From TrEMBL:
Residue numbers binding Zn(2+): H269, H333
Residue ranges that the Swiss-Prot or TrEMBL entry lists as coiled coil: none
Annotated organism of origin: Cloacibacillus evryensis
Pfam families per UniProt: ThiC_Rad_SAM
Pathway: Cofactor biosynthesis; thiamine diphosphate biosynthesis
Residues annotated to bind [4Fe-4S] cluster: C409, C412, C416
Family recorded in the similarity comment: Belongs to the ThiC family.
GO-annotated cellular components: cytosol
Binding, substrate: N69, M98, Y127, H163, S185, R186, G187, D226, A227, C228, R229, E265, Y292
Swiss-Prot/TrEMBL cofactor(s): [4Fe-4S] cluster
Gene Ontology molecular functions: 4 iron, 4 sulfur cluster binding; phosphomethylpyrimidine synthase activity; zinc ion binding
Catalyzed reactions per annotation: 5-amino-1-(5-phospho-beta-D-ribosyl)imidazole + S-adenosyl-L-methionine = 4-amino-2-methyl-5-(phosphooxymethyl)pyrimidine + CO + 5'-deoxyadenosine + formate + L-methionine + 3 H(+)
Cofactor binding mode and count: Binds 1 [4Fe-4S] cluster per subunit. The cluster is coordinated with 3 cysteines and an exchangeable S-adenosyl-L-methionine.
The protein, known as: Phosphomethylpyrimidine synthase
Length: 435
């Protein structure tokens, strides 16, 4: 093989099988895709050890993809349940699964994913270090932090969230610029606490070049984590968030010098009126690298409905340039999501992603809606179910309220505008109350 990473292949003019597959899915030319990848504006996360992968591309000019967070916690350790969530997520169209396991046999779950799952697999090695080494946080060494990232690469994960944008200098400034909700990133809070307790530099920042070599060896994409993402509207677009983004932009250039693929993680909680500007800031400071956003959640007062608050923000973010949406479930801020929560989160994120693709003019996006509209015009219920984002729910709703006449629904009945317009335009008589 004459290349180490997909980025290096693109820069050398080598068309990989992953590029060919992505170009076909995206309905774009291979030369265009390779050009975007050579510049770092599009990526294909694909660890060469993830043999089950069906590759997908990430970039603002490609279809917006969604990620599903799963994994065990101390209070919820059922691996079989997490496997079921993974299977359901892939069946519902999620392009990526992020394993955030923080308890139990995390490596067993991770290896199962990379051995069997067709979706991209991402992890946060910082979480796993605490579980794997099974000792107090302050006793984990710099070398051990790096070793855990190497282990994840060896296990076949396609992208790793690494919180390397928060260093000793930015941590010092963070303490001087008080926030309402401090640091809400789990990985960010862990590495911040470790630096405070040990007095040492963030290992992933200090030894970034070594991290790049690991990523290059396995073709792991770096997802540069936003330790300082805002956790409430009051903290959005503050000095800590922007300063970390500047650092991530610097690290992005260093990664590209080694042909390592990169995406940038972003907010977080954010008012609607700041989202588009934040997408522009990221594109500028991080040189057009694909942006991966959590939400953004546009109001803080809707626990139980944060799949909706995030879908609102996600649609605007993706329409403004974000490439990758991390789903949020109704359980966000409350508990580990169950299977139904996962489904609700995926549907909301897919709606947001598709709405953005329509706005951006992504090839093929509007065709789906036009096919649905034609089926509605024809009152072709089976075709409508087939085209629905959630066919099961659409079928169930109609079955639960059967209309008197099959070519109507129980909302309008004989008053159905579509039915009556079809008839009158076909030269038939419409007599609503006599039918």
């Amino acid at each position: 093989m004459d290349h180490s990473t997909q980025m290096e292949a693109a820069r050398r003019g080598v068309l990989t099988k992953e590029m060919a597959a992505v170009a076909e899915k995206e309905r774009i030319g291979t030369d265009k895709l390779m050009g975007l990848m050579a510049e770092g504006r599009a990526i294909i996360p694909c660890n060469r050890l993830h043999s089950a992968l069906s590759p997908n591309g990430l970039g603002s000019m490609l279809k917006t993809k969604i990620n599903v967070n799963l994994g065990t916690s101390r209070d919820m350790t059922d691996l079989e349940m997490e496997f079921k969530k993974v299977q359901s997520a892939v069946e519902m169209g999620a392009e990526a699964i992020m394993d955030l396991s923080s308890f139990g046999d995390t490596r067993k779950f991770r290896r199962h994913l990379t051995g069997n799952c067709t979706a991209m697999i991402g992890t946060v090695p910082i979480y796993d270090a605490v579980v794997y080494y099974n000792k107090p946080l302050a006793q984990i060494t710099t070398e051990e932090w790096i070793d855990i990232a190497r282990m994840h690469a060896e296990d076949g994960v396609d992208f790793m969230t690494i919180h390397c944008g928060i260093n000793r200098d930015t941590a010092h400034k963070f303490k001087k610029n008080k926030r309402l909700t401090n640091i809400v990133s789990r990985g960010g809070s862990i590495i911040f606490a470790w630096m405070e307790m040990t007095g040492k530099e963030n290992p992933f920042y200090e030894r970034f070049d070594e991290l790049l070599e690991i990523c290059r060896d396995y073709d792991v994409t770096l997802s540069l984590g936003d330790a300082c993402r805002p956790g409430c509207l009051a903290d959005a677009t503050d000095a800590s968030q922007v300063e970390e983004l500047i650092t991530l932009g610097e690290l992005t250039k260093r990664a590209w010098e080694r042909d390592v693929q990169v995406m940038i993680e972003g907010p977080g909680h954010m008012p609607l009126n700041q989202i588009a500007a934040n997408m522009e800031i990221e594109k500028t400071l991080c040189h057009g690298a694909p942006f991966y956003v959590l939400g953004p959640i546009v109001t803080d007062v809707a626990p139980g409905y944060d799949h909706i608050t995030s879908a609102i923000g996600g649609a605007l973010a993706a329409a403004s340039g974000a490439a990758f949406l991390c789903y949020v479930t109704p359980a966000e801020h409350l508990r580990l999501p169950d299977v139904n929560d996962v489904k609700e989160g995926i549907v909301a994120a897919r709606i947001a992603a598709h709405a953005a693709d329509i706005a951006k003019g992504v090839p093929g996006a509007r065709e789906w809606d036009d096919r649905m509209s034609f089926a509605r015009k024809k009152l072709d219920w089976e075709k409508m179910f087939e085209l629905a984002i959630d066919p099961e729910k659409a079928r169930r709703y109609r079955a639960e309220s059967k209309p008197e006449k099959e070519d109507t629904c129980s909302m309008c009945g004989n008053f159905c505008a579509v039915r009556n317009m079809n008839r009158i335009l076909d030269g038939e008589i419409v007599s609503i109350f006599d039918e």
